[in-house]
Amino acid sequence: MSDVVSHKCPNCDGPLLFDPESQSFHCEYCLSVFKDTDIKENTEPSHIEEVAKETFNLYACPSCGAEVVTDETTAATYCYYCHNPVVLKDRVSGEFLPNAILPFKVSEKEAKEKFLQWANKKKFIPRDFFSKKQIEKMTGVYFPYWNVDAELFGDVKAKGTKIDVWRIDETEYTRTRRYDIRRKGNVTFKSLLKTALSKNVKQNMIESVQPFNVDDCQAFDSRFLSGFQAEKRDLEFNDIKESVNQELDQYTESLLVNDISGYGMIDSSRCQTQLLNQSNQYYLLPLWIVTYKGHDSEEPYYFAMNGVSGKTSGILPVNKTKLIGTSAIIGAVVSGIVLLGGYLLF
């Protein structure tokens, strides 16, 4: 019984890869193309009970037998020797089985083209950030998220102020009126997405490429992981529950306060909330990622793209030499104009 599975072509036994553009599976060897309904997964019962006792970082590739080395959260990757895509079954089954997956729709070619368009607009980044070697590092990754639906009751009390000013002849009059304001009601939240991977908590790239249309999610099938990398969650919902509830409270208060209108100033708002219903599900969502390790920073720079909508975001390195040189040239030009203007005027 194997903890590793490589989805095979029914015709030639080559590896199957998922194609985001056609939403189908294709074989790079015999060029066969299959829809989801054309192939059936040869499933084997996984022994998740054994996996729960020990964390494995070494797996045997089912195609060539080489050892596949992973960190503790990798769920899908490539064999470094034969380059076949492999899925680590124990990390996407049992208690780690995702409720749903949102398949890639942006292809690797399209992602690389958009990355170049985005990078070329930035004038002061090092050229090796978008070099051919760097572009080849672009990776499609399924990241783990908690998808939260909730309903809250909120009750906001605030003070509102209206100020009227008018003049009669030479006299100016001001009238100030203070009001007690109250807004209350039920607020429903759908698909609040929070990262389920601890190493992404400090990075903004996961949130910055949202939203994801989770209505397009499909029942989890490990075949969608073929050709991509994937991470499994290492944050349980209880680990983030407190921060999620605080965020829901803040959103509830903000929505109720924003419903107040007709006052010049609103202050001293106080809100009481009550959580009525809450549910959470574990999703795998797609991103294209490029990372870059600069010489002047311990933290890596990154480019991230939503694997469905193509929305991009990133934190870029700065070519300081080019920036300083450009600033010096601009400064010299401005100084020259000022001196010339002074000479002509006087």
TrEMBL record:
Keywords: Membrane, Transmembrane, Transmembrane helix. It comes from Vagococcus hydrophili. This is TFIIB-type zinc ribbon-containing protein. The chain crosses the membrane at residues 323-345.
